[in-house]
């Protein structure tokens, strides 16, 4: 914490030099805008589409365009939600899923951090490992799932591994980018001040790489959240994914929709909290965002 | 071993894969680990060849390509129009972007059960989920590109008398092109990644994901590995081609 604090001004430039994709800074700004709110009239404008959707939904239901199995009245969704919530199932399933997310994140992000740090620090390591990692990254994460199931069955472990794979790449590449792109001017400055390696590490390398690392954490956790749903759809007897599977099998579309809403809200909250933490840790620096979401 | 800066990058890059290959081969030969879990490298190569010669793997690849292209094209067309709309008009942005942002919070995989309930275990469901995956990056990047067209360009276009469609065609789109092509590249990657989920969760007879799942079902680890290899290399080839194309389209456009 202390390190971040009093290096603020010095590292402003470093943060600026980091790469940012147009989509993410925009997306970040859009999310921020969504949270802080437009002006009141603008907010009302934003309600038009959701309201229209709800009205059309209600009209199609009351005119019996589709069967009840395919479309339930919009108002049953909150009921279902409350029912799931009151029965206590929802909370415990959410905790199961969150637990998986954090375990998978912990495994994947630590591995990504260590490798990314090593690759950023040592050119030899980067040359030997990077091509292999890049090649492995070409494989869509879902393609690993059958392999993981063959090796580890369908218990808890394969799910954690699957989530960890998703969390691994963003952490790896962001850490690598942060560590490898410490501006030469800092390096030279550290030399002028005759920093030993320990001091260089703590006072230059870590603070300079921190913005990238934190972005990596955020993206990595986001990926973990995406993949927990995937992992649970492969078969589980608890978690948010289980609610969806069960809802689908019993043809309870309201349950599936309620679960979708829960997934959306939790994903949004997770990202929001992490953005706030990120802003707090990087306060005083130029805001930036890197790596695909 | 000296990996100096002068040595060609691929030399350093092949060391680790070669070591892994040797370790794999020796473990497979030692017989400590059952073939079910770790087939030998030759077995994998053999499977690779027989899959092409006897099991019509090319046909499965073709099916996957058709699927991913349909989804990608639909998603791209939709995402591009949507991004252009909310990029060009601020009121459209205010009306649509809050809803868009709400919907976007749900991870794509989460939609699969709902889409299957609505459209069944059909090709349509698979294409829909792939097009949703392609939609977001294109929409966001088109929006960002259009919205970030420098003000001077717009002013200049007024001077030259460009209005309406011709302004979009001559000024806005060229200026937004780098961002749009970024979106296209990202979207293709997403489509390819979600294709696997679509083929595995929404079962079908044809497709690479189907073959990988079949390998799992019949405890054929070699087939699973062949499938993973093919998915990875095809994805790599596709993104490389699209990135090259994007680079050549963006040539000469300076921001």
Largest interface: A-B, 67 and 72 residues
Encode the helix/strand succession of chain B as letters. HHHHHHHHHH
Q: Considering the protein shown, what is the CATH homologous superfamily of the largest domain in chain A?
A: MetI-like
Question: Do you know the CATH architecture of the largest domain in chain A?
Answer: Orthogonal Bundle
Determine the structural class of chain A based on helices, strands and strand pairing. Answer: mainly alpha
Evaluate the radius of gyration of chain A.
23 Å
The number of domains of chain A: 2
What helical percentage do the residues of chain B reach? over 70%
Strand tally of chain A is 0
* Total beta strands of chain B: 0
Quick one: overall form of chain B?
elongated
| Mean pLDDT over all positions of chain B | 87
Could you describe the largest sheet of chain A, including whether it forms a barrel? none
Look at the structure and give the CATH class of chain B. Mainly Alpha
> Which parts of chain B are unreliable, with pLDDT below 50 for 5 consecutive residues or more?
none
- Given this structure, which CATH class of the largest domain in chain A is correct? Mainly Alpha
Notes on the structure:
The complex is a heterodimer of chains A (293) and B (255). With 293 residues, chain A is mainly alpha-helical. Chain A has 2 domains: 22-74, no CATH class; 75-281, MetI-like (MetI-like fold, Orthogonal Bundle). Helices cover 80% and strands 0% of the residues of chain A. The longest helix of chain A is centred in the C-terminal third of the chain and has 37 residues, at 197-233. Chain B starts with 8 loop residues before the first helix and ends in a 5-residue tail after the last helix. Chain B contains 10 helices and no strands. In chain B, helix 3 (57-88) runs parallel beside helix 6, helix 5 crosses helix 6 and helix 9 packs antiparallel against helix 10. Chain B has a single domain (39-250), classed as MetI-like fold (Orthogonal Bundle). The mean pLDDT of chain B is 87. The chains are: A mainly alpha (293), B mainly alpha (255). At the A-B interface, helix 3, helix 4, helix 7, helix 8 and helix 11 of A face helix 1, helix 4, helix 5, helix 6 and helix 8 of B.
